[in-house]
Structures are given as C-alpha cells and as structure tokens.
Amino acid sequence: MTQGINITGSITKEFEEILTEPAMRFLTELTTKFQPELAQLLEKRKIFQARMDAGELPDFLEETRSIREGDWSILGIPEDLQDRRVEITGPVDRKMIINALNAKVRVFMADFEDSLSPTWPNVVNGQINLRDANNQDIEFTNEKGKVYKLDENPAMLIARVRGLHLPEKHLTIKIDGTEHFVPGCLFDFAMYFFHNYDTRKNRDSGVYYYVPKIESYLEAAWWSSVFSFTEDHFNAERGTIKATFLIETLPAVFQMDEILHAGKDHIVGLNCGRWDYIFSYIKTLKNHPDRVLPDRQIIGMDTPFLSAYSKLLIKTCHKRGALAMGGMAAFIPAKDAEQNAIVTEKVLSDKTLEASNGHDGTWVAHPGLADIAMDVFNKHIPQGMPNQMDVSRTDDPEFTAADLLAVPEGERTEAGLRTNIRVSIQYIEGWISGTGCVPIYGLMEDAATAEISRASIWQWIHNKKTLSNGKLVTKNLFREILKEELQVVRTEVGEERFADGRYSEAVTMMDKITTGDEMVDFLTLPAYEHL
To answer: Residue 145 in contact with residue 31, Cβ under 8 Å?
Structure first.
C-alpha cells in the first residue's frame, strides 16, 4: 500500500524508480477525482449500444449542431509536432523503442495499448524504457553482445495510453469506501507525465500522447479535464500536454467537430484508426442483418464507407486547424524479392491514396516501410511546408450518415473464415503469453485486426449468413473449422512451439467469445484474466 493505492504486482528495485511515493500520490489524486466520472462514461457507452441493438443507427447529433456550424479552432500545434508525415508504431520494449526512434520517421508512437499485452512487467518496464528514451540514454544489449543506442537525432516520442475500458488489475484504490481498480489509462498517463515532464520541458517541448478508442465528445472532454488538472497540479502552462485522438469507433466519426471542440486546448489532431474502426462498425451494428461485412481482407480504404470516413476527418481537422493523420500499413517487408515487390506496391498504393486525399501523415509498423511512405508524402506536401493543412476539401459533397454507414460489397468466403480463425488463435495465444504485437502471414497483427477477425465470425453466425460456397455459418461449422485450423497452426508453428505455447487456452477463449449469445466488447477483457 502506498499513498492509498494497493499494489498487488511484484516490485523490483527498478520498479521502485517508477512507483515512487510522489508519483503514486499524484496517481491517487488523479484516480480519486476522475474514476467516478469515467465509470459513468462507460455506462453511457452501454446505453448507446442498447439503442443501436434495438434498431437505431448512429447519426450526427442535433444538440451539437451549433458546434459543427460554428467558427472556432483548436488552441494550436507546437512547432515540434507540425511535421508528422511518417510515424512508426510499436510496443514499449527496449530494443523496439531504440530501433523505432532511429527509424527514418518523424514520430514514434510508443504503444501501451493495442500492440502491448499489459502484463505487470510489460507495463512498468515500458515506463522505465520511455523515461530512459526521453533522457536519451537508453541502451540495449542482446544475447550476442550487440549494443543498441539512440542516433543523434531520434524521432519525436509520443505515448499511447490504454483505452478507457481496460483496468490495471495490479493497482486498487478505495473511493468513497468502495474498492476499484485504477484505470489503466490513468496509470499510463500519470506515470509517463510524472517521470518525463521536467525532461521534456528542459528541451522546450511538451508531453505528447495518443488517445485511443474514444466514442463521444464527452470522453474527449473528460480527457481534457484530466490534462488541465495535471497542468495545474504541476504549474505547467495550458497546452503543455498535447494529444492526438484516434477516431477508430463508429460513434466517434459522427462527433469529430465536437471532439476537437471539447479538447481544443490540448488536441492537435485526429487519426484514422482504420482497423479498430472496422471492428467498431461490426460491433455497433451487430444486430443489424443488413449491415454485415464481407471478408475483412477485401475491405480497403478505397471502400466507399472508409473513403468517406477518411475524407470527412481531413475536412473536419483542417477546418479547425488540426492535423489529419492517416492509418496503419501493417505489412512486413518480405525476404522473397517477388513477394516484397507485392508488399511494396500495396503500401505505395495505400499511402498514395492517403496523401492525395490530404492526410498530413501516416503510420507504418516496420522501419523497412518508412522510406516508401516518406517518399509518397514528400511528393505531396509542398516543399518547405510541414504538412498539408491547406487542403480543405471544401469542394466535397456533404458527407451524410448514409455515406458513413454504407455496407461494402464483397463475398464472405470459407477461405476468409479460415484465415480469421487462424489469425485469432495465434494472436490470442501471443497476447495471453505476454506479446501484444504478433507477425502473422506477412502482417504485424495487433489487437485491432484480431478484433475484426473474431467479430466478423460472430456477426456471420448471429445474423445467419451464408458463405459464397453455400454453407450456412453456424456455431457447429465454426467449431469444426476451428479444430481443423488449429492443426494447420500446429503445423505452421512447429511441434516445439505448439507444445510450449498456450494454444488450447486460446482456442477455448476463441470459442467462448465467438459463439456466445452476446458479443464481447473487447477480446482483451477476457484475455486479461489469463495474464
């Protein structure tokens, strides 16, 4: 017990450098003040979803029309955040951080969320690693003695905290006599700010974050209150904390103006979190049989509903003086020259579409893709300019709810079903084993892509959909194929890896979350119980 918070995770000497009395005192104040409202916001999500399940469709809010039609802008963007034409993302392990900061990119987004399995050591070691990265004295030596160090001009570091829904089960606190878990997002936010604010201030920089999975402007307002409280607590100027919010849920795309307005002192931009967005489309409209998606592999950003989402985000952001960030290229460069040429062409096409639409930057998952993305954005961003915020898209037709909800065309195939099952098995096994970023079939899979895979199958079963070969997708069919694909995975990973892994647990969990009468909100919630 320290400063009112009970720590149930182990504490090493290194962990004590993060879990200090002053840091825990700050976390206690933050949690006591903001956890009750967070609980209310999560309840509002359930109420909204119940309305969607009953037959409603998402739409723009009438009560906030004045904000959408008003003439206002965000507070501003610091100079060191204005050029973000290529960003790389990945988990917060030590070697990854060094390689990412040394990559030919503008920004590294250090991820406590979708690409991290939040074991207690992963979470606390991540804070240690980011502290050392901000101090620019981070080093790593591998088992062969190779030493990794930061180059002279590393990329800008931004931390992504966990979503509002995930608790940190190793920390509990009593509020008004009732014991609660400390929200994972507040732990990530507080520890990162506390241990890095002075360092970054001495470099004339702020403390920068990515905020994932918000579903409403009320959640953005909550975050802005957290930021303002923290700035006041440390006697920091308003706007010391800057955040980019991911628009990766279907409800949020209808409230982008409102989200920017609610957090205008701290928000610098919005990001197209495309994979989580597809997952959220499935989850939000899960009870609508006329809104069932085809194979996930054929849903690209040129699909009408995703194109409308991207263009509306750009139009909204640039109108308000905010950056409009593009999405992730999850590909991994291939060793085979022919296969790598295919990967290169796919990434080039994807990034060209984003840049030509007017995005100010984009994401890659591997340093080997950075040059491709950088070349594309260098061609589209005017020479001497840091971004494309002059692209207004004012000539676009008014995007409607129908545009954003349009169901993409395409088949549901048995091959797609089988791929979804294999990806889900391998990702869940990796996650519960402590790895949140898993290379599978040439893609760097994280929680978002695994969510689409398992949610698609649930949606097909729930809405009694038929595959292109005429087979009805039922629980029995799913279970038959699950058994078959488990053996495929076994062959692919090898007997030793399979025997050492947690594949039986992963399959049991996959079955439970896919065949249940209710769709599980996030697979990471039941998976968290396995850590």
So the answer is: no
